[in-house]
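Run folding on both entries below.
>entry_1
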Amino acid sequence: MGEPTNIEELKDLTTNGIGKDPDAEPLVYDNPKITKAVPGWQWRGMIEKANAVIRLPHRDVWNGKLLIGATPAVRNEFSLDLLLSDIAIQHGYAYAASDKATPMLILRDPARSMAEWPQVYVKLTEFAADLVTETCGERPNKTYISGVSNGGYLTRIMLERYPLLYDGGVEWEGVFWDPESRHLMTTLPVWVKAYPVYCNWRGDRTEKERSQAYEKLVDAGLNPGSASVWDQYFMLYWLVSLWLYGRNLDPTWAPFQAEWSNDWLTDPDPIANYPWSERRDIVGERIQPIANTGQLTKPLLSVAGNYDCLTPYRYHADAYAKLVNATGSGQHHRMYEINRGNHVDGLLRSKLAGQQPVQPFYEAALYALEDWVERGILPPKSGLYDDINEFTKRRDLLSRTISGAKMDL
């Protein structure tokens, strides 16, 4: 099942010892605090056609638990090193993650599918637990799963389908895949089409046209408060996501069959004219095998920013919470709406624009899950949170926070 390519003993399993991967840095506003070196072993290899990494602290510092990191988007197995691994390792966790077997642009091939991810993570979880047992002399007494974006989706789906593998999970900004919902293939085309009109790229748009475009952007889920960063998300996420998921989920629409073109960044019309409403049934058939059910039997804590410019809160976080409640599983779930939180904390490094990092809330939710599962302490109630000090009493977070005054810069 696992084919080792590299296993070595290291003096420090944190990024101070192993280095910072370029795929990890874009996900965090600032690197987490590292207060100590954590010695142990790092295994690297292939599991179920996926590149994987497993980190095992020495037995005298291992806390007896395993945390599975569900990686976002099409990033690699090291993409959660700063967001999750550095924090978990310092608390004594064994940690494992993989690239889901679809790194980079693999999903542009419609023969490949997000439906592969759950089986990849079943094998990763089982192999990591066996490796922990072999190395540390006993099986993990608790196994959790956590991830962001499509890793958040994966966290949900693993708890829905394979609850016996996990004791609970925490997800941030999980993508909500449901044929009947306003999923990405129904919002991305609207943003890609309307944004150049709203910004008057051509220079001849009337105020009425710009106003109508703005209304379309907001109706498709964007928070008006996040308008100053829509340009970043257009250039970095909206276009390429529409093309990539379009190729995978609607490969018969001719424009999606074209290879990526940087020309679309200035003239997106070739794919902006995607008739998403007319093709919902076609896309829905491709989404059905990966759709969330909302049926939970293990604890899940969800964190999502209401400024999210990729998986808008209304159509992803809130829609999933409503589905969970509709299945009668609400007692196993909490949904935390983080005021002024966006999708990618790393973009805040260059432009705060009134936003705040979500990572401190995400880290605090991990500790709340431990308290809930291991000590029977109920987590914070679902709802809107603006200040990390309202959300948790802990003052030892490794994620860095910023002051309210600085957010306005």
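>entry_2
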Amino acid sequence: MEQLSYKTSHVNSMWAVDMRHFGIAVEVDADNPLNFSRRSAFVFELERKVPDSAPPPVLPSVTKPHIEDPMMQILLLMMTTSQMNPFKKLSGDIVTQQLYPFIDESATVVDSTQLSFLNVSSVPQPWPEPKGIKVNMMPFRPLDKGSLPKNCQAYWAIIQMCVEHSHGAPAPRGPKVAYLTIDESHVEEGKTQRRGGLHTETPGVLVGTNIAPIPEFAYHHWGHGSYNQGKVQGGIYMASNVANSTLYYDAEVKKERMGDVPNGDCRYLRKHFGEPIFNRADMIYWMTDRTPHEALPMPSGPRQFIRVILGGVHLWFKDHSTANPLVDLPSSVRVIVGNKFGTSSAGELTEVTKRRK
């Protein structure tokens, strides 16, 4: 590291270094190597100024012992998947697969035996006239049009198609509160309107926080969703008026392995999910909260998107969501403050509402 002019942060440093196709190094305190707090662990990108065919520079590397450490595996994965981390550029699909070959990619993580994705129906035409609406995870009552703000009520016909598909008309068994997302925005050339990178809707188990899942569940539900004997229960519905703007897989991450996909990020598992499915314009799709999907880069232009979550959610991220003055959150929902994409360990997230017993 001295050869590369990197200033160390600890008097006695220990390094984990990977130089196979790019360079990344993690510095920790050798006197306390398992302390991965933000003030104790530092990630460096090692710029290789030599041709790829040349051998990598000689570094004080103890790569194998540390990369095999399970806590280091989680640390490295989080460091390159955090939206705000400067090393996020290292986390492209190819790079991720090269950096994390030690992560279990077998069938013990991915379940392709259950139906996890469905074409539901075409959106009633025409789409509502766009007015720049942008709401996210806004609570509403799925059988009460009046529980929506007036500017969102134009989407009621689409919402009812989702409700009837999930629970059957007039949906007496449905949840008392559902969650609505509408995005009517202009997308720049080559950008995504929604979250890019293959992920699940559920954040999983929020590794690195003390916000543990409810004891009777393996992960934080965010819509849940199941298919049994031709019927779906709960789950998530999505539709867009732009074709090929979302990619889905008919597979899911197993419940008990959600801890292996921090904040739902499952790009390194892509090759195990099967064939991708690209959305058609004006088609409503159903999926579970563990179904991998991603927004895709678009040509410049407007896009209308709607998401209806009809299964229960355990967490509501206040800084990312839209409150509804007409509908309160259920008492069972835990309200979380902080940017869920803003830290590699999610350690800055804080629970402000405890689940009532």
